[in-house]
Amino acid sequence: MASFRIFTPAGPGVPPGGDYALEKEALAGLDAEIVEAPSDPAGFIAAAGREADAVYARGMRFTAEVINALEKCRVITLGSVGVDSVDVKAATARGMPVTNVPDTFIEEVADHAMMLLLASFRRCIEQDRMVREHRWREGRPALLKIPRLMGQTLGFISFGRVARAVARRAKPFGLHMIAYDPFLDETQMIEQGVMPATLDEVMARSDFVSMHAPARPECNHMLTERHFRLMKPSAIFINTGRGPTVDEAALIKALQEGWLAYAGLDVLEVEPPSHNNPLLSMENVILSAHTASASARFDEGRKRRVGQELALVAQGKWPMSCVNPAVLQDTKLQRWQPVGMGRGPNS
90, 160, 172, 287: least CB-packed within 10 angstroms? Predict the structure, then answer.
């Protein structure tokens, strides 16, 4: 039996584990092993409760009940940016660091957000449909109603890594940019050419609103009917963050009643959507299936990062990323980085 045992759920909803070759690259030479456990809470607790030195969280929700049953767990590691499958508050109360991969898929998600912005603004799907339906002459008149992109305002809700990458892409298009993020030093916005603003100012002044808030309890239904009523009738709403941060019923109502013009959505409140979700039949909506982070490097990047975090903790060191960094100073783990690593839920 290895001295550092990593438990991970197996079963329905989890891709075949194989030999965890990519995760194990960083663990090579360490006395560590990855052990699969049942993916139901009771089964996982029975297998891992007394034995897990670390948890590779995937395929199930890690509630307070599960976390409190982990007697000696030193870290909960996720292979995703979002941490909504883990009760971070419960982990923090137990002094357990929770790690994610906040910088692995940044460029892909930023590309996707910019794609949704441009495709919705230039009515890409609508133009494609006109050509296929032999309505060629309708294409130009439709776009003559739309202003040029240069000089319009892009507003960000949350200005973490992805939003900053989108800002870098948007700048050459000549967009003015504003952002709301109460957890970020405003100088980091100004350095990117982005002006700080309140949430209401972002909603009211922006021609494009790009949503990047994380799926944390305090962000659930962060945007409500009141916020959508503030938007310009010509504005476009983009969401490549998390679906539950938006009151979807309010967004649907806003789109139906013309409070805003269009939406480009990679995430929905319930995924996959039910067959009768009105968004599926709305012509002023572009949808993708929560695929913004997907690319050929997706699995390799996140699995290697999971292995790196687990290997650091196995060696008694701070992980590179931690969404609840306040716990680190009270653990037996040692800081090793010479500079700050941008830790935190919005880094």
Answer: 172
DSSP-derived secondary structure letter, 55: E
List beta partners, residue 250: none
Report percent pLDDT > 90 for the chain: 81
Q: In this predicted structure, what is the pLDDT of residue 104?
A: 82
CATH class of 4-103+296-330: alpha beta
Q: What is the pLDDT of residue 12?
A: 53
Mean pLDDT of the chain: 92
Q: Where are the beta strands (DSSP E) in 29-150?
A: 32-38, 54-57, 76-78, 98-99
Radius of gyration (C-alpha) of the chain in whole angstroms = 22
Dihedrals phi, psi of 231, to nearest 5 degrees: -75, 155
CA distances from 105 to 80, 111, 122 (A): 9, 10, 26
The structure tokens listed for 182 are 């109460």
Amino acid 296: pLDDT: 87
Contacts by residues 41-50 (CB-CB < 8 Å, ≥ 24 positions apart): 41/65, 41/66, 44/7, 44/9, 45/69, 47/7, 48/7, 48/73
**185-208 pLDDT, tens digit each:** 899 899 999 999 999 999 999 999
**106-287 has which fold?**
Rossmann fold (3.40.50)
What's this model's pTM, rounded to 2 decimal places? 0.85
Question: What's the mean pLDDT in 278-283?
Answer: 97
106-287 matches 4-103+296-330 in CATH topology: yes
The residues assigned a catalytic role are 242, 271, 290
Summarised one tens digit per residue, pLDDT across range 78-87 is 998 888 899 9
For 170-229, give the secondary structure using H, E and C.
HHHHCCEEEEECCCCCHHHHHCCCCEECCHHHHHHHCCEEEECCCCCHHHCCCECHHHHH
Closest residue by Cα to residue 12 from 46, 60, 52, 82: 60
Residue 206, CA distances (Å) to 93, 230, 312 in order: 39, 10, 43
d(CA 59, CA 40): 9
Domain ranges of the chain: 4-103+296-330, 106-287
